Here is the input.
Amino acid sequence: MRLVVLSALLIVVASYAAYGYIESSNLTLDELKQQVGLEPKLVDDRADLLPQADEEYITEYHRMLLRRFDIDYRILTDNNLPNINRFAWERFNDEKVGSESEQGRGLLLVIDPEQNQLRIEVSAGLESVYPDAFVAYLENRQMVPFFNRGRVADGIFATSELIRIRAMEAQEGLEFDPSSIRMSQGAGANATAGIDAGRDTTFTQGKPDVPAADTPEETYRRFFESLANRNGRWDLDIFTPATKQHMKGMISSAAQMDHGVKTYRNCMIEHATYNEERTLAVLAHSLSNRACDPFFLEKGEDGKWRLDLKTVGTALGHTFGNIWYIDYRRYALSGIERYEFGLRHLVFRRPKGEQFEHQGIPYYRSYGMQANYVDEGIRIVRLASDGFMARQGFRQGDLIVQWESELFPHQNYVSRRMSSVRPGLDIHTRVRRGDTYFSKTFKAPPHPPKGEYRFNVTFHSASSAVPQVHYIEPGGLADKLGLQPGDYIVGWQGNEKADGRFIQQTYRQLQPGDELTARVYRDGQVLDLSTQAGEKRKMGQVQ
Amino acid sequence: MNSTLSTLLAVAVFLILPLLGGVFLYNNLVNKEEQVFSTWAQVESNYQRRADLIPNLVKTVSAYLEHERSTLQEVTEARRGDGEAIERLIQELQQAHTEIQQATDTSTAPDLADPAFLQSFDRAQNRLGRLVGRLLVTVEDYPNLRASDQMLALQAQLEGTENRINVARLGFNQSVEAFNRSIRVIPGSLMASLGNFKRKAYFKADNGASEAVQVDFQ
Here is the structure.
């Protein structure tokens, strides 16, 4: 009896096991790899299209996409794929593209140079953000123009940029679909790769009929009109000769032009500033949208204004979110120095916590004003009553505003001169004692024996006792208050001993509707100014 | 061991365990069949997606032809012939589209065990697909239309839909294979007759049963 039961048990267990074996699927190599924990390569360049440096750069960028937008974007190049659609779909699901991302968002770019095909496969979760039509647009209007010129890495990178921008928009508009399907359902689009096929200007050609205008604003408007018409010519009249040379070698894809038009539709010109001779102009946008670059223009000999895009392109860089900054590495060769007059209303800083090394991110000045202490020279702190300087008539508290030929000298300069000047040489000084100025000339004493002092005086650099206004932004709060460059600030919000730090602190606490008062010293007179504070200008987020 | 334990064990082995096993098998078959139905729904929805794109395609091409006709001063013979051929093509396309719309409206639960049903469905959809393909090919002769962003977007959507259809059909065939296999394997086949599970038909490639689409170009 026991035997029968046990053998029956055995048969039951065996049949379950057999059944289970029949039903189970076989593990693929990739699943095994996944289980072992081998990291999938983001860029698999089997057709050897990309140089190593570019491959690494693109991999870095895609890792950033993964970190910020949770999109697992991989690239595969191979030759002679039998059916690129089938291959891309199978590969997508075999490699589990999208597995690196937490929500299963994946993109796969497959390029087959031999068959002249490319395809981007989109995971089910991303179909709402990257519909087929948009992917085809990305491929045909952004990637392929670069490929035609043989610039494969640049094309891939430029498209990754647009993918990132679309992801950003989708995030803000909450367009991402929280789908739980983690594979591809065949979404995506194809295009003919046309690598090295030669420049195709079907979609970016126009007529060279965009003339420079009489005002900078009009030239600016004509430039964006030409972009909207997809006129990608480099020889338009609205560019300076240097800009034409600069743009000759560049590729303007249709998608880039579309994107430019779309971005700058949301940009407002805040200041149009001219230099003294009125030959240069700067159109600066409001910082509420940090993706809006300042535009530099030059007046030609015919009196028309032309865009200096070369300086814009060389001096400025763009970081995440497309926000512009001044790249100090290229500062000297960019020629941005001559346009600095137009950017004085901004102060350039490196934000905390970011790894920017050479970059200046623009911020508005507090109150729209630049005020600083003025270095007035050196103040005598102590002098020996029987020393050389005392014998010349100098007293403690004297302010030496000129030493020899140097006006407002620094303490280091004066001490160097004091130790090196030839004995017997005439030293000319100009001194301020209290409110009176006088000159004093004396002959340099002989070098003293060891252990003794030559001039026998202690001094240090002195700054003005009060902050002085250097620059006022037109239309800013300080302008509204009535301050002018050159004013000495002798009182701020009732504080008679206001210094720079106090002025900054009060700005942070200022609310719309609060009263702002100041007492200034201008041209021998003391003036009391007051105004009401309005809303503070918003600056776009720096990511 | 004593007799009560051995009887209990006997009951368990000869009664309860096979019963549980039977339930397990039955549920598995049910899951597989539902998977077949759900992948079929995917296939149908993708075909519907393509059908929904047709009116837009027709509208774009017709509007362009109208524009051409109204702005062209001299219309050459060849050009006029082309235009008429396209119009005929559009008419056929619209006809096929309406037919398919009517067909899908009337069907409630498709009989997936009947290979004939799948074949006729496949044929009707293929006809529509071929007409769309011919239209897109003839559009290539009109560079202004081909280059427009609208046409690019439409083409991308149509090609994308075709791709999705292929993927869905693959998925459907895979689920049908899994279901058919589990019906015929030894433990499963015993259950299949109990629950009235029938073998499902595959989506086969259209071999020679296709109607060649005649488009006349003079």
